[in-house]
Design goal:
The strands form two sheets. Strands 1, 2, 3, 4 and 10 form a five-stranded antiparallel beta sheet that branches. By secondary structure, the protein is mainly beta. The protein has one domain. It has two helices and ten strands, in the order E-E-H-E-E-E-E-E-H-E-E-E. It is about 10% helix and about 50% strand. The two termini are about 15 Å apart.
């Protein structure tokens, strides 16, 4: 997934108890420009700038990944505009594995999960166009490419 410049979450669901399924798609810069109305963006300068910009969108030709966590401790989906805030340590790009994060701090302070119970766990993160998805799990996810054209 990290070879793609842009990713977008297209689906997230709990398929059964403690099982989380996420579908993330490759996105790309579109050939079309937006055409916003004053009702959609009342600020004239911002609307003009956005109207002169190409949108980034998912297409049928882009790769799609299914990510399944068979069991998780916690997950959160945050609007990307509000993500961040503390210095974090991770490996990866849009798909990340954290060794230091605010979400790991939350797990240690806001839950009973520890290295002893349920056992060692890892913070996985996915930075998408509109959302940041954080998952803490004892086991790594299964990742499957579900279409590549």
């Amino acid at each position: 997934m990290n070879q793609h410049k842009y990713l977008d979450m297209v689906e997230i669901q709990e398929t059964h108890k403690d099982c989380l399924r996420i579908v993330i798609a490759e996105a790309g810069v579109s050939d079309t420009y937006s055409d916003m109305s004053p009702e959609e963006e009342p600020n004239d300068a911002l609307r003009e700038m956005l109207d002169e910009s190409n949108s980034i969108e998912v297409t049928d030709s882009g790769a799609r990944y299914e990510i399944v966590f068979d069991k998780y401790i916690a997950y959160a989906v945050t609007d990307e505009s509000y993500a961040g805030g503390m210095e974090e340590t991770f490996e990866g790009g849009s798909a990340r594995i954290y060794s230091k994060s605010a979400f790991l701090n939350y797990i240690s302070q806001g839950t009973v999960a520890t290295e002893e119970y349920p056992g060692p766990f890892v913070h996985y993160g996915f930075y998408c166009l509109n959302q940041v998805i954080d998952i803490v799990s004892e086991r790594p996810p299964t990742v499957k490419l579900i279409n590549a054209k």
